[in-house]
UniProtKB/TrEMBL annotation:
<dbReference type="Pfam" id="PF16040">
    <property type="entry name" value="APD1-4_N"/>
</dbReference>
<feature type="transmembrane region" description="Helical">
    <location>
        <begin position="39"/>
        <end position="60"/>
    </location>
</feature>
<feature type="compositionally biased region" description="Polar residues">
    <location>
        <begin position="191"/>
        <end position="207"/>
    </location>
</feature>
<feature type="domain" description="E3 ubiquitin-protein ligase APD1-4 N-terminal">
    <location>
        <begin position="97"/>
        <end position="165"/>
    </location>
</feature>
<protein>
    <recommendedName>
        <fullName>E3 ubiquitin-protein ligase APD1-4 middle domain-containing protein</fullName>
    </recommendedName>
</protein>
<keyword id="KW-0812">Transmembrane</keyword>
<dbReference type="InterPro" id="IPR032008">
    <property type="entry name" value="APD1-4_N"/>
</dbReference>
<dbReference type="InterPro" id="IPR032010">
    <property type="entry name" value="APD1-4_M"/>
</dbReference>
<feature type="domain" description="E3 ubiquitin-protein ligase APD1-4 middle">
    <location>
        <begin position="320"/>
        <end position="429"/>
    </location>
</feature>
<keyword id="KW-1133">Transmembrane helix</keyword>
<feature type="region of interest" description="Disordered">
    <location>
        <begin position="191"/>
        <end position="220"/>
    </location>
</feature>
<feature type="transmembrane region" description="Helical">
    <location>
        <begin position="414"/>
        <end position="431"/>
    </location>
</feature>
<keyword id="KW-0472">Membrane</keyword>
<dbReference type="Pfam" id="PF16041">
    <property type="entry name" value="APD1-4_M"/>
</dbReference>
Amino acid sequence: MSQKCARSVISYHNTNYKYTSVQYKDQNDRGKMHGSQRVIMFCLLTTVLPTTLIVSSLYLRNIRYADVMYKISDSDVIQIHKGQSSIFCEKHSLKMNNTFNAFQMKGRPELSSKRRHIKLKKSMTLPDDTLEYWGFFLFAGATVDLKACSRYEGSKILVVKGEKILDTCGILDGRKYKKDPSLIDNPDQLSVTLESPKGNNEQTTEISLDHKKKRDKEHSKEQLFRNLVEDTMNIHFNKTVHKRSVGNPPLHNPNTVLDTGVYHGGNANNTPNITEDASISSFENNLHECYHENILMNNFFPYSKECNSTSYLENTTTLKVEHKVLTDGYYYYIFYSDNDMVKNDIHVIFDIYKPTFQYTNMSESKVCLNSTECEFDISMFSDELVIVEVPTTGGFKNDNSFILTSVCRPRTTVYIFFPVSVLLLILLFAFL
């Protein structure tokens, strides 16, 4: 029989039945299909799966739990979540170019009855119809004592309650409002004390918010009339300049902000060069329209030629504002000038008394005080997080910013699983 007849056709016959032909493949052909499946499974389980494991470990180490950098300021208190895991991190390291305090604990710390004193001294030069603001996050129970003076007449202070990013309603971008200003009641309490700059014929007026609405409305009408008869005014608008702008290298926002420092912005450094028609609402009216639902106070304060620095305010009071905070929130103190003859010099001293957080019943291993570097052990499946606070130094408050670097030290016993798994997979399927 020739080789071409390797595959045979067999027929069987008998008188009662006829058997049809059946064709079979030889043993080698049946084995080839099994071998193809084996090669495919081997490639998948020794190439694709190990590659996935290796890529996953690199992603977790270098992206998901990579070093995280934050830009924070004096008196900030933040809780760090990003870049940390109780499974993949065995230690949490922190480093900053300034001293800080850090605490490892569960949940959010409680406020204590103890308060810390923050002092902020600021001087500014405001052209006509420009502003600068200073904002703070204040807990209920905080108090703010403010003293201010100006060299020339026309300076005013506006206190408003706002959001984390102060909404300027487009005023600094050039958009204008035409509605009459209106003020509404607000639960926070303020008192304003006005005194003679030289201490003679001293006149003090205590004003609580509950009794000032009528007076503010009358004053607003008077101010509106005075503004409407002005011939022209020069106003230049630009975007708010924030001290907390994100720089280079890229920085992250804290996951949980428990307390914050100073927010600063305004357009006082811009040179006005836009003429506005007197029939259009003035700069001040735009401010009133923007913040009328959240205005706590709006007041002129006396001026003096002797007001040339914050040192003048140490012994002399021209304007004193006492603000007792009843609800948590962001509060902004906006200073602006309505003097079209000269640039007005304004000097301010803030004395802020803020409630502090209490950290009790904590072991030494979970507390790191007054240091530039800290490290905490992380227990497997722990729900503890690290809280970082930047204390003020000697009671003096400045708005400097610092860079905090948060590092996840990898848990070796977990990451070793990935390469070991790759080796086991290769050995396991090599014998299939």
